[in-house]
C-alpha cells in the first residue's frame, strides 16, 4: 500500500468550489465507505474544513488510486472531472507525509500557525476510526501528524500571535467598523467554529454578545461559558436588527442569512465563516451589508509569523518526516522477517518428522533435545542477519532489502507496504 493525498484548498479553489466539495458530518461516514469500496483504495481519512477538503488514502497504485479518489469526489460534488482536476493538488508517498505534517502544524493554513487545524484533523481521524476506514498506515500517519502538530506549537512560537481564521476576519472587520471593542455582536452557530468565534470576540471586548443556534441547549452551554446571552433561533430576524457585527458559522447546507432576512437590518458587517456559505449569494451586495467570507480572507489577509518561527517549524517537519519514513521502512521489513522465521520453523518441523520416521527408537526426551538443538542453530543463524536487515531497512532506500529477502527465499508476504522517498508530484493541474 502507498500513501496518497488529494485535495483542494483556499490556495487552489474559490469558496464556491469548496462549498460544493464540503462534506457535512452527517454524510462523512457514507463518503468514507464509498472511498474504501473503490478497487485501488484500502484506507481513507477525509479532512473537511472551512478552507480545505482533503482525502488521505492508502492505495495499491498511484494512477488507480488517484482515479478512484477523483471519481468519488467528482460524483459527490457534482463537479465534472476535468473541471475538478483544475482545483486539486496531489501528493504521493513521502510528499503525502510531508503535506500531512505541514497541515497539522499550520504551515499550510490560511492563517499560518493557527491551532484549530489540530482539532479538525483529530476529528477527521476519529470519524475514519469510527467508520473503520483507517488501517495500519493511516492510523500511524494521523497519530504522528497530531503529535507533530503538538510538538510544533509547544517548541516554537508559530502561534504566538494567537491568530485564527476568526481573528483574521475580525482584523478585516476593523476596517469597516473601526474598533470593535464595545460593539454588539451575534454568533450564529455553536459548533467548533462558533465556539472559537465566541472566545475570540470575548477576548476582543465585544459586547453585548449574543449566541443563537438551532439546538438551543448548545447555545445556552456556550453562552454560560463566556458570559454571553443565548437567544432562540426563532428570534434571529429581530436580533439581526440590534447588532453591529454577525459571525455566522453553521453547518447548514442552505443559506441561513437570505436576502430577504438581511435587507430588513440596519448597516451590518457579516463574517461568513461557513462552508457552504451562510450568506445567500444575492445578499452580498445589499446596501449597508458588508460580507467578509473565506474568499475575502484568502485575498486580503497577509499576516504571518516571523521567518525564524516558520523555519523552526519546517525543521521539525523535515525531521519528523524522516522519522516516519524510517518507521515505515522498518515496519515493511517486519512481515518479511516474520515470514522468513516461519519458513525456517516449517523446515525444522519437517526435518524432525523425517527423523521420527527414520529413528523410531528415539525416546521423547531425545527427540526433544534434537528439536531444541535444531531450533537454537536456526535462530542463531538468523539472528544477526535479521537484526542487520532491520537496521538497513530503516535507512533511505531500505525497502529494497525486504524485496530482496522475499526474492531470495521465495517468501509470500501479502500486502507489503512500500512507501519510499520520492519527489513531490505537485499540483494535478
From TrEMBL:
This is Glutamyl-tRNA reductase. It comes from Mangrovihabitans endophyticus. GO terms for biological process: protoporphyrinogen IX biosynthetic process from glutamate. The keyword Oxidoreductase applies. The active site is at residue 50. Possesses an unusual extended V-shaped dimeric structure with each monomer consisting of three distinct domains arranged along a curved 'spinal' alpha-helix. The N-terminal catalytic domain specifically recognizes the glutamate moiety of the substrate. The second domain is the NADPH-binding domain, and the third C-terminal domain is responsible for dimerization. GO terms for molecular function: glutamyl-tRNA reductase activity; NADP binding. Its EC number is 1.2.1.70. Catalyzes the NADPH-dependent reduction of glutamyl-tRNA(Glu) to glutamate 1-semialdehyde (GSA). It catalyses: (S)-4-amino-5-oxopentanoate + tRNA(Glu) + NADP(+) = L-glutamyl-tRNA(Glu) + NADPH + H(+). PANTHER family: GLUTAMYL-TRNA REDUCTASE. The record marks 99 as: Important for activity. Transmembrane segments: none annotated. Substrate binds at residues 49-52, 109, 114-116, 120. Residues 313-411 form the Tetrapyrrole biosynthesis glutamyl-tRNA reductase dimerisation domain. NADP(+) binds at residues 189-194.
Amino acid at each position: 500500500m502507498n500513501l496518497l493525498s488529494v485535495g483542494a484548498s483556499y490556495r487552489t479553489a474559490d469558496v464556491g468550489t469548496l462549498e460544493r466539495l464540503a462534506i457535512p458530518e452527517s454524510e462523512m461516514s457514507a463518503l468514507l465507505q464509498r472511498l474504501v469500496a473503490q478497487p485501488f483504495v484500502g484506507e481513507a481519512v477525509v479532512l473537511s474544513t472551512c478552507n480545505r477538503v482533503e482525502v488521505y488514502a492508502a492505495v495499491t497504485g498511484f494512477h488507480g488510486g488517484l482515479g478512484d479518489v477523483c471519481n468519488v469526489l467528482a460524483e459527490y460534488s457534482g463537479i465534472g472531472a476535468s473541471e475538478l482536476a483544475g482545483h486539486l493538488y496531489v501528493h504521493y508517498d513521502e510528499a503525502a507525509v510531508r503535506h500531512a505534517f505541514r497541515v497539522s502544524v499550520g504551515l499550510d493554513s490560511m492563517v499560518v500557525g493557527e491551532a484549530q487545524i489540530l482539532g479538525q484533523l483529530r476529528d477527521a481521524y476519529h470519524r475514519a476510526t469510527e467508520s473503520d476506514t483507517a488501517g495500519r498506515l493511516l492510523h500511524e500517519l494521523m497519530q504522528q501528524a497530531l503529535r507533530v502538530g503538538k510538538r510544533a506549537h509547544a517548541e516554537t512560537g508559530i502561534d504566538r500571535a494567537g491568530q485564527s481564521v476568526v481573528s483574521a476576519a475580525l482584523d478585516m472587520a476593523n476596517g469597516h467598523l473601526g474598533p470593535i471593542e464595545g460593539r454588539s455582536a451575534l454568533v450564529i452557530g455553536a459548533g467548533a467554529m462558533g465556539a472559537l468565534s465566541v472566545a475570540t470576540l470575548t477576548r476582543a471586548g465585544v459586547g453585548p454578545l449574543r449566541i443563537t443556534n438551532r439546538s438551543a441547549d448548545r447555545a445556552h452551554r456556550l453562552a454560560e461559558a463566556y458570559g454571553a446571552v443565548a437567544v432562540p433561533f426563532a428570534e434571529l430576524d429581530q436580533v439581526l436588527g440590534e447588532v453591529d457585527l454577525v459571525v455566522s458559522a453553521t453547518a447548514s447546507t442552505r443559506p441561513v442569512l437570505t436576502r430577504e432576512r438581511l435587507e430588513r437590518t440596519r448597516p451590518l458587517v457579516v463574517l461568513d465563516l461557513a462552508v457552504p456559505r451562510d450568506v445567500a449569494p444575492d445578499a452580498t451586495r445589499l446596501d449597508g451589508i458588508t460580507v467578509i467570507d473565506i474568499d475575502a480572507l484568502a485575498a486580503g489577509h497577509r499576516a504571518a509569523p516571523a521567518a525564524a518561527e516558520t523555519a523552526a517549524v519546517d525543521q521539525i517537519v523535515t525531521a519528523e518526516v524522516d522519522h516516519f519514513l524510517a518507521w515505515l521502512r522498518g515496519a515493511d521489513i517486519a512481515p518479511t522477517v516474520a515470514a522468513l522465521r516461519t519458513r525456517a520453523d516449517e523446515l525444522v518441523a519437517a526435518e524432525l518428522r523425517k527423523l521420527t520416521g527414520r529413528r523410531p527408537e528415539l525416546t521423547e526426551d531425545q527427540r526433544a533435545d534434537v528439536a531444541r538443538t535444531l531450533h537454537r542453530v536456526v535462530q542463531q543463524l538468523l539472528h544477526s542477519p535479521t537484526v542487520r536487515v532491520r537496521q538497513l531497512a530503516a535507512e533511505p532506500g531500505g525497502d529494497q532489502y525486504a524485496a530482496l529477502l522475499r526474492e531470495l527465499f521465495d517468501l509470500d508476504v501479502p500486502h507489503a507496504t512500500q512507501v519510499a522517498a520520492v519527489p513531490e508530484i505537485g499540483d494535478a493541474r
